[in-house]
Amino acid sequence: MSSARTMLALAETYLAERRQLGFELDRPGALTLGFASYADDHGHIGPLNETIVLQWAREKAQRVDPFTWAKRVAVLRPFARYLREMEPATKFPEDSPYGSSSRRLAPHIYTQAEVDALIAAARQLPGGLTSATFEVLFGLLAATGLRISEALKLRCGNLDCARGELTVRDTKRKRERIVPLHPTATNALLAYLRVRAKHGATDVAAPLFLSETNGDALTYGCVRRVFLRLSTNLGIVSRGGHRVVRIHDLRHNSERSIIPSVFATTA
User: Fold this and answer.
1) Is the same domain home to 127 and 72?
2) Which of 79, 135, 163, 200 has its CA 20 to 30 A from that of 239?
């Protein structure tokens, strides 16, 4: 590893090579670049070492939480392996002093009343498309078990109302799967498409869920802000292992027989 190359330059090259192999690396990539900039700003010269890694993990974390620090260290491990191939003197913590970087916290299991209240609150949002979008999106997550990332990547062409199916292509493991829909979910999606058609094309490649603000595909950041506001206003308190209720936990309700009827009140 040439001492003339900054850590940021090395990180950029590493991420470019990984992305060419098909890795998206959105958050890991941002953290890796953040670490590289931190190392350069703090005058780090020469091979990577444990001191600068652990220092960055603590100082730049938004939460004072050893688990968060451990996750940040773990994110850099593939980058460290890449650097070690060029510079054998590269040092990286073999076992994080901050403990394990993985844990599985119990999800919040929503009651039927909580799901109904969330959908009712979404229905009251200003804007014809906005209220329709969030009403159907929240119901779809609860009724089908879709991940929020999967739902936001859906295209109009992924919906087959005649068969009552959704084709999910951008899954967590990059596989395609067919998700059967409850008849009330199909009816709700058909009603949503009628509203959606007034705000943009509904061809097969068009995003299913659209932002009324800018006409683009709905983003996770927007969904998260709306969800947090509504869930807070409704006073929904986490009964799981996380500090606050999460939109992701809606998917765990799809296994309960009462949830597929969630759309009965929205159609």
Assistant:
1) no
2) 135
